[in-house]
Amino acid sequence: MAAEAPEPQIFANLHQDQATRDMSFAAPLNLDPLAQQQQQQNQIQIQIQIQAQAQAQAQAQAQAQARHQQQQQQQQQQQQQLQQTLHQQQLQQHYLQQQYLQQQHQQQQQQLQQQALYHQQQQQQQQMNGMNGANMGAVMPAPTPAGHQAELNYIYGMVEELSRQLADNRRVTEDIVSGLGRVRNKAKAQGLANGDVISSAADDINAQESNLDSIISELSESFDRAKHSRDANAALLTQYANALSLMLKQFHDYKSKHVADVAAWHRSYRAQLDEARRENSRLREQIWEMQTHAARANESLRKFRRKYDEDEERFAKRVDDTALRQEVRFWKRMAMPELEDDDPYWSGDDDIIDEAEKERLRELELRAAQEQHMVDSQGEDSDEQHHLSSMGMMGGIAMQREESSGQILPIPPPRPLSAASSTGSTGR
To answer: What's the CA gap between 398 and 353, in Å, rounded?
Structure first.
């Protein structure tokens, strides 16, 4: 731009020389050939200088236009980069806001679930203890976990920092756009061409050129901070996504394990229940079979007893045997009246009781007397009759003589059928 300053004076001198030559109406001087040749050389040199100056001016204009275009391109690139950065920051801010809102919504849902669970537990406790619900205190919301609240605060701080950077970038972009608008409006209002606009804006650009470095450094620093913030946010989001995926994986693993354990427990319970039912059915069938066999055996015993008792021939033999025994006893007494009744000679007779049988009868009498005394002390006559009848069911009564006392003896059980009843053994 330094070469552009002397251009107006050079052009003014050239125009002045040309005007003086055109306005000199005097007759040309007759110069010698050396003067004419020198004049021609001067004209050639002047033309060469004019062409060189025109070329220099054209080169300067081309350089200025190229520099202006390069600056415009750089400004457009910076504007595009700023717009992209702003767009990315807006997207990141929107994504972080969505994440923050989702986390707040999840936190609210967790708090509502905890409140509902606490309220349900309180209602169950009231129902179990029989307490009145009006006397219970108000349900307090559950506190947020410390780690979760710290993460929310950190994310909220990052959102505020990104919002501030986005506002700064928006302000810088608006300044650049407003400057371009001023240049465009100036050119449109004054009707200037591109070259005039460039030459008029050169001073402004040169004046602002000193501030461009500081602006570029500030923008570069802001851009670096934005990139660093973007990388940090991306790393944080990656860590958050990894933590969420790990947590979801652990939840799914726990759910699958819990479902498998519950299914296995249900299968085991059903198998044990089925086995117990089969065992119960088998035992019931065995009981039914035992009852059936017992009923058949009882029926067979009843038939046998009935047939045995209804046998007339056996009954006749029993009567005849009893009669013959009484007859033999009578003739023995008649034949030997000098023998006493307790003589061992009569031990083989049916009306004489041996020593062992007498001892057993004495024990039975003593036991019956004790029971009779207890019954009399309690005043329960019905129990006495029941006891006597039960004793009578135990067996027959031993044969006694007519001289025996009139005391009623308890009914002893029958003597076992053995060889002692016919061989005369005393049982000693």
So the answer is: 8
